[in-house]
Amino acid sequence: MSRFVPQKLTDLPGTLPLNQGGTGATDLSGARTALGETWVTATDGATVTFDLSAGRSQKVTLGGNRTLAVSNAVAGQPFLLALIQDGTGSRTVTWFSGIKWAGGSAPTLTTTAAKADLIRFHPITSSTFYAEIVGQNY
Predict the structure, then answer these.
(1) How many domains does the chain have?
(2) Average of pLDDT values for 41-57?
(3) Which helix (H) or strand (E) holds 47?
């Protein structure tokens, strides 16, 4: 069975075929990610903690400038984060520690209202992560 790999975040709901794990949903709820999981919605707040025991594909709509944290990371189990700007946009994040970015520095997030960035993390240990941008401005 071939895996569906989204080219854009918006590809997930509308074009994920039912025979590849899709639900026919019109939004991310119930849609499966390239990691084969349903999106988990993290709780927005001053600190957004992505509890990876709940799922390795998580999304949050940023309602303000946020500090990001992860819990229950496991070496060798990559995870995917979708950071979505709210209707205001221009939200920024402070990244959790231990990230080693491709190219050496953290990306500038999309700040347009209602747009999203998709980032994949590869835990080398439970506290060291190689990170890459999957795509931006979705």
Answers:
(1) 1
(2) 97
(3) strand 47-51
Give the tens place of pLDDT for each residue, 104-138. 999 999 999 999 999 999 999 999 999 999 999 99
Global pTM exceeds 0.85 = no
Domain at 85, CATH number: 2.60.120
**pLDDT for residue 33:** 58
State the DSSP string of 73-136: --TT--EEEEEEE-SS----EEPPTTEEETTSSPPPPP-STT-EEEEEEEESSSS-EEEEEEE-
Burial of 106 (0-12, 13-18, 19+ CB in 10 A): middle
Does 8 map to a domain?
no
- Asked if 101 contacts 131 with a C-beta cutoff of 8 angstroms, the reply is yes
Q: Is residue 27 part of a domain?
A: no
Q: What tokens does 35 get?
A: 């990691």
pLDDT over threshold 50, residue 8: no
Identity of the residue numbered 67? T
Which residue range is the domain that position 123 belongs to?
37-135
